[in-house]
Amino acid sequence: MKTQSHPHCCVAVCAALLAAPLSSAAPTLTNETAAARLPGKFTWAELVTDNVAVTRSFYGALLGWTFHTHGDYVLVSNNGQPLAGMIQRQRPANQAHATPRWFGYLSVPDVEAAQQAVIQAGGRVVAAPHEVPARGREAVFADREGALFGVIHSTGGDPADASAAPGGWIWLQLLSRDAHRAATFYRSVGGYQITRNTAENHSSDYILSSEGIARATVRTLPTDKAATVQPTWLPFVRVLHLDQSVAHAKQLGGKVLVSARPDLMSGKVAVIADPTGGALGLLESNPK
Questions:
Q1: Do residues 104 and 152 lie in contact, with contact meaning Cβ atoms separated by under 8 Å?
Q2: What SS3 state is found at 186?
Q3: What angle do CA 256, 277, 3 make, to 5 degrees?
Q4: What local confidence, expressed as pLDDT, does residue 262 receive?
Q5: What is the pTM of this model?
Q6: Any idea which architecture 7-23+39-154 has in CATH?
Q7: pLDDT in the model for residue 157
Q8: At 246, which helix (H) or strand (E)?
């Protein structure tokens, strides 16, 4: 979690971090033939960091991820399946808020149309639409509060909906100062259906759904956090034993940003930061 910064400052920092072109060797999103397109699904994630070597060591030991380097792009896999990418970027000089961060890409039918929707809804363009060979057309934006996200229209379709394996992405949550306003923004960009979350012991205010499937949640930051936490997307990884994973993260040089507690999804979630400061959620799921 980050100290408060003006959204325009956040956008400028993100633009600086992503200024250099990404590797043309970025992987396809799926190896499936004739894969379907699932608009609104978050299909990929990337970490922009100033120390890929440290983050590789941390996540490899914590989650069992493996890595392959393609130019300046590091492909992250979980159990042999492509999962994410890591991008090495130097922090801009005199930019205290240039904290490494994870962000996700959502599937869209038309990247240029998504860009227009972002601009009309008050967001900003961080990386303009561009082609990535073998992967598709993509762009990176910031919403009205400065939260970073990408959109992609993949060449070969989107990964199928399936249960997350341990070490895989299991959920995505947007932390906002106004959850309803933020959910409305993403509805205009991703075509989501918005549902108020009425589940017992819930940790979010609204659910974003597409194709009849919940894709992400949006939470209004608590009053005591709104002044100190920058609105951001927070991806969650599935783990089998949360307490063990949190303890291991600390041993590896990470920090605990949000500890597991009974009033937060029955103590099944926590938020950590890797040694470079990138925040990541951990969610225990171990079906009987």
A1: no
A2: helix
A3: 85
A4: 78
A5: 0.85
A6: Roll (3.10)
A7: 80
A8: helix 242-251
**Confidence at residue 3, expressed as pLDDT on a 0 to 100 scale:** 33
Please name the residue that has the structure tokens 């633009």.
Answer: 15
**Side chain identity at residue 192, one-letter code:** Y
Q: Where in the chain is the domain with CATH 3.10.180.10?
A: 7-23+39-154, 169-284
The whole-number pLDDT of residue 150 equals: 96
* Residue-level pLDDT at 72: 81
pLDDT at residue 111 in the model: 97
Which amino acid is residue 42, in one-letter code? Answer: F
In Å, how far are 194, 209, 237 from 187, measured between CA atoms?
A: 7, 9, 24
Angle at 115 (CA atoms; ends 113, 120), nearest 5 degrees: 95
What's the CATH superfamily of 169-284? 2,3-Dihydroxybiphenyl 1,2-Dioxygenase, domain 1 (3.10.180.10)
pLDDT on residue 200:
66
Angle (CA) 122-128-133 rounded to 5° is 145
Rounded-to-integer distance, Cα 243 and Cα 238, Å: 13
Mapped onto helix, strand or coil, the DSSP state of residue 30 is: coil
For the chain, residues with pLDDT lower than 50 are 1-24
The pLDDT assigned to 208 comes to: 96
The total of other beta-carbon atoms located within 10 Å of residue 202's CB is: 14
Structure tokens at 33: 């033939």
